[in-house]
Write a structure and sequence with these properties.
heterodimer; A: 518 residues; mainly alpha; globular; B: 501 residues; two-stranded antiparallel ribbon
Chain lengths: 518, 501
């Protein structure tokens, strides 16, 4: 247990920022955005500080804080971070900063917008570090509210429907998740993730369920399966996993692109994070038993959205569906590992490779997806709101720098070696092939289609004849180039030297591999 | 000291009635000071009290019948006394702008408050009943005189329902007195008296239903939405916030504490239900889902909030029927939490919105850009909405969480249905919020709707209620340290039969 409450400080930092933005916002929009940028930068710096203080050699949770809160309902203040948390914190803080940079010139977005964005960041930080279910659920739910209003107030024409849909879908999942955990609490007397993990790993949880939950004479396996399904639904909707993705297209497309950057860059990762922090350690047996269905769902999440993206004519929707596809690889990696029994050394290697790949993919998708929507935000402001696939053409002549940088990002997104998307996807496939070759083979189809539609974008938007309307389209300004440059540098840096991220993950990954017993 | 909550309220009522005519400010200030003083007493008692039952006053009253003037408080009483204190102050702040018969309004208001304190503090069954009846009279006048839209009908409906419930309670009281033969009506003596099981089997449902009418239990809830909708803002705040709790409190304090065997299995099944416990649990869950569903299709904003009260009170009843400690403490927590949140909702709807727009029709409201015109009301309503749907961080979450854990243990299936009720609750609250503050298709320019700005008393009232629900959402210890010892006290021994230890 560390002396200084590092994690609490990190969580409170954006919250304080949000409050300051509201207070200083009276002085005008530029004061608000400056304050927001200062706090977002401070959050990035703080995360970097945690990153360097983190000891990768230790497998345990670090920076832990544990305080009594309300013992009669199992509520504790328990936070901590492992390698996975740190990666998520890093990507969240970066994405929020990118989003604020993207909003710099968008005059619609005033102080309230920036404040909500920072509140959302607090929710994200809290979700990725809380270790007590109730405490975690607080952040899980409260991050939904700013996201909801960001879509509802600053979104496009269909924002009302989109926001409602997003909210209702997510709440359905939250309620089933909550009910599942209440039952677990009733059985085990604990809401603590680490205690529950411990109990699940030594088989006590099943025993506790059969002892304490008498549900129509069902056996404990049956009840556990139901609880798993209820918890799974919560994360499957958030990620989303096909067929629970109905909210995504409209939410990502109707929200302002600057908002979508955070939605896809970090908020959607909360679902995958839940797979890691909750489903894999606490329900290993159920995941193993449901492995065939889960694998098919993962494959569906990879392949079907790729086709859907292919036939879209709106760039935002194309990237939205490609988001499902990219997170589908993460789900594929996790469920493959969860569904493979055995503990031989080679198997452990494959599992470790797959899980490392998943975590890298979380980082890389966060950065690339956010960057793509950033480009869309820039394009939208220049085109006066047009973002159709067929609205443009030949843009590389009018705005070569924009086209070049967005091209790099598109290639990063499809996983070109040397760029950020490659190490994650490569490791996932390297790990999944030996464990479930058929699933990996089917998933390759997703890679192929992704390549097709991303190249389609390159072709339709940047090549061909330059339309008359766009002849005088201004290229990126110097300020925009400077703001985008670090993101591009990160794409190359992690792509060429993935150890930057993977370096702190090794023991965390082994911890997760060890939790898969079945 | 705590007894002064009752006396001071009545004295305050008299003082308000004696303020000079034509000087409404005197009446308002007197009422506010009285309610603040009473709130101060309540807070002092909460800080001091540990939750165990403590006697405040005990003196013979009708000694021939063994009836006493017996005031006492345990943690449950204290919780509800605190709620009443907060709701009373907020209610006065939100009725600051009443211009018609100001003196009468605040005098009746304080009488109602005093009687409510009386109910929560009485430990003699007859005394409790007397206060319970006193509370009905001011309710009638508050709605009938200052109400809107069919207010006489609503007031009469409320009174008739209340009296019908009281009749059942009175019958049960007399029966308990006769059957026990103990020559007493003090609650602690009766709580430990082993009434014959067959007697409890019919006395329990009778008294329970009698009180539950006032708690808005389905299918006896219909007074609630009409009453809430017709009442002036402060009265709806009190009705939903405190008066409904009188019913729930009576269910726990009288029906369940005195006749716990009435909850035992019957030994046979009707429609799959084998005990009053299961019957009322099912009724509670029907109330949760039904109230939420009906609220989903209302056109009148106040009716939406009115039906939401029915839904939320269903959680109180469900918690009571779980018969385990966590469920019961959840029920008491929900009584408190709903009192605050319902007060807040009615304050926004009745005071901030209706008195500025003069319409409660969702269709008309959606054409007024209220979110821009009165942003303070919008933010308050959003926060109240978040609290009302039970988001973590607000008191409603702690309450519903405990009720759901309790019901997981007692009736797993009902938990899922209650979960569905929460979802419908989210839907109807969102619909109301959307129509009121985020109206689409706004064509009217802002100048067409001159809106008086939000006044200082409104702000203060909103801050008070919001702070309460957030503090109790983040720091449940404050109330749990009162509720848990009370539930562990010997008074409830017969109810839990040592199963909680």
């Amino acid at each position: 247990m560390s002396q200084f409450p590092y994690v609490s400080g990190l969580t409170l930092l954006p919250f304080a920022g949000g409050v300051s933005v509201l207070l200083l916002g009276r002085a005008g929009r530029s004061a608000a955005r400056l304050t927001a940028a200062v706090f977002a930068t401070a959050a990035v710096a703080y995360t970097a500080m945690l990153w360097f203080r983190f000891v990768p050699a230790l497998a345990a949770m670090q920076f832990q804080e544990l305080h009594a809160w309300e013992p009669s309902i199992g509520l504790q203040y328990h936070v901590g971070a492992d390698g996975l948390s740190l990666v998520m914190l890093a990507v969240s803080s970066l994405v929020v900063l990118m989003s604020i940079a993207a909003s710099w010139k968008n005059t619609n977005q005033g102080p309230a917008y920036f404040a909500l964005l920072l509140f959302l960041e607090t929710g994200l930080f809290g979700t990725y570090t809380a270790l007590n279910f109730l405490h975690w659920f607080l952040y899980w739910e409260l991050s939904l509210i700013p996201a909801f209003f960001l879509i509802r107030i600053w979104g496009g024409a269909g924002r009302a429907r989109a926001a409602t849909r997003f909210f209702v879908y997510t709440m359905v999942g939250s309620i089933t998740l909550l009910l599942a955990f209440l039952a677990l609490f009733l059985a085990s007397g604990s809401f603590d993730f680490m205690e529950l993990t411990e109990m699940a790993q030594i088989g006590q949880l099943t025993a506790a369920i059969s002892q304490n939950l008498h549900w129509h004479q069902w056996d404990s396996g049956h009840i556990s399966m139901w609880l798993f399904c209820a918890a799974f639904l919560g994360f499957a909707i958030k990620t989303p996993v096909v067929p629970f993705h109905g909210w995504l297209g409209s939410a990502y497309a109707e929200a302002a692109p600057e908002t979508t950057m955070v939605l896809t860059g970090s908020l959607s990762k909360m679902g995958v994070y839940g797979f890691f922090r909750i489903l894999l350690p606490i329900f290993p047996e159920q995941m193993w038993r449901a492995k065939t269905i889960l694998l098919w769902l993962a494959i569906a999440s990879i392949v079907l959205p790729a086709f859907t993206a292919w036939v879209q004519t709106d760039l935002r929707r194309m990237f939205a569906y490609s988001s499902i596809n990219h997170l589908g690889y993460c789900i594929l990696g996790i469920v493959t590992v969860a569904g493979s029994s055995g503990a031989s050394a080679s198997l452990v290697d494959e599992k470790a490779a797959a899980l490392t790949g998943v975590m890298l993919q979380l980082f890389s998708h966060g950065i690339t997806a956010a960057a793509l929507f950033w480009f869309l935000a820039l394009l939208e402001r220049r085109s006066g709101g047009l973002l159709g696939l067929n609205d443009f053409g030949g843009l590389r002549r009018a705005m070569p720098v924009f086209s070049g940088l967005m091209g790099i990002t598109l290639f990063a997104s499809l996983g070109l070696p040397g760029l950020i998307g490659f190490p994650g996807e490569f490791l996932i496939f390297k790990g999944v092939f030996p464990l479930a070759w058929w699933a990996a083979s089917l998933a390759v189809l997703g890679l192929l289609i992704t390549a097709v539609f991303l190249l389609l974008i390159l072709q339709r938007v940047f090549s061909g004849a330059l339309g008359k309307r766009w002849q005088s389209m201004p290229d990126l300004t110097l300020a925009e180039r400077c703001m985008l440059a670090p993101a591009i540098v990160v794409m190359f840096a992690v792509g060429l030297y993935p150890q930057l991220i993977a370096g702190i993950l090794q023991n965390t990954v082994m911890q997760f591999v060890g939790q898969v017993r079945y | 000291m705590l007894a002064w909550t009752i006396y001071l309220s009545f004295i305050g009522a008299a003082a308000v009635a004696l303020t000079p005519t034509g000087r409404p400010l005197f009446a308002r200030v007197t009422a506010l000071l009285t309610s603040l003083a009473v709130l101060g007493i309540a807070i002092a008692a909460v800080v001091e009290g540990g939750g165990q039952p403590i006697t405040i006053v005990r003196a013979p009253w009708i000694s021939r019948l063994g009836i006493e003037y017996y005031l006492a408080a345990d943690g449950i009483s204290l919780t509800l006394v605190l709620l009443t204190g907060i709701a009373a102050v907020a209610g006065i702040l939100f009725s600051w702008n009443i211009e018609r018969r100001v003196r009468d309004f605040f005098a009746l208001y304080l009488v109602l408050i005093g009687a409510v304190y009386g109910v929560f503090l009485s430990f003699d069954l007859l005394l409790l009943f007397v206060f319970y009846e006193i509370a009905i009279i001011p309710k009638y006048f508050l709605i009938a005189i200052w109400g809107s839209k069919r207010c006489e009908y609503a007031a009469m409906k409320l009174v008739l329902y209340s009296f019908a419930g009281s009749a059942l309670v009175l019958a049960g009281t007399v029966a308990a007195y006769c059957v026990s033969g103990q020559h007493t009506l003090s609650l602690d003596a009766l709580a430990n008296f082993p009434f014959p099981a067959h007697f409890q089997m019919w006395a329990f449902p009778m008294v329970f239903v009698g009180f539950a009418v006032l708690a808005g239990m389905w299918p006896f809830h219909t007074w609630a939405p009409t009453g809430h909708a017709a009442a002036p803002t402060a009265a709806s705040m009190l009705l939903a916030g405190v008066v409904m709790k009188l019913g729930a409190y009576g269910c726990l304090r009288v029906a369940m504490m005195l006749f716990p065997r009435g909850l035992d299995p019957w030994g046979f099944r009707v429609l799959g239900l084998g005990s009053w416990q299961q019957v009322f649990a099912v009724v509670a869950v029907i109330g949760i889902v039904y109230g939420a569903t009906v609220a989903l299709v209302q056109k009148d904003l106040k009716f939406v909030v009115g039906y939401s009260s029915v839904s939320h009170m269903g959680f109180v009843l469900l918690g009571l029927m779980t018969l385990n400690r966590i469920g019961l403490s959840g029920a008491v927590y929900q009584m408190f939490s709903h009192g605050i949140i319902a007060g807040l909702l009615f304050a926004v709807v009745g005071r901030m919105v209706y008195e500025r727009t003069h319409t409660r029709d969702l269709g008309e409201l959606s054409r007024i850009p209220l979110g821009r015109l009165i942003p303070f009301a919008a933010v308050t309503f959003v926060l109240a909405w978040m609290a009302s749907i039970g988001l973590p961080g607000f008191s409603g979450f702690i309450a519903e969480l405990q009720v759901l854990i309790g019901s997981w243990r007692a009736f797993p299936w009902l938990s899922w249905i209650a979960g569905l009720g929460i979802l419908i609750g989210i839907a109807f609250s969102w619909r109301a919020l959307q129509a009121t503050f985020f109206g689409e298709g706004v064509t009217a320019s802002d100048t067409e709707h001159p809106m008086p700005p939000i006044t200082v008393p409104e702000r203060l009232g909103a801050y008070l209620l919001l702070a309460t629900t957030i503090v109790l959402g983040l720091y449940p210890r404050l109330l749990m340290s009162l509720i848990l010892p009370a539930l562990n006290s010997p008074l409830f021994e017969q109810l839990h039969r040592g199963a909680w230890k």
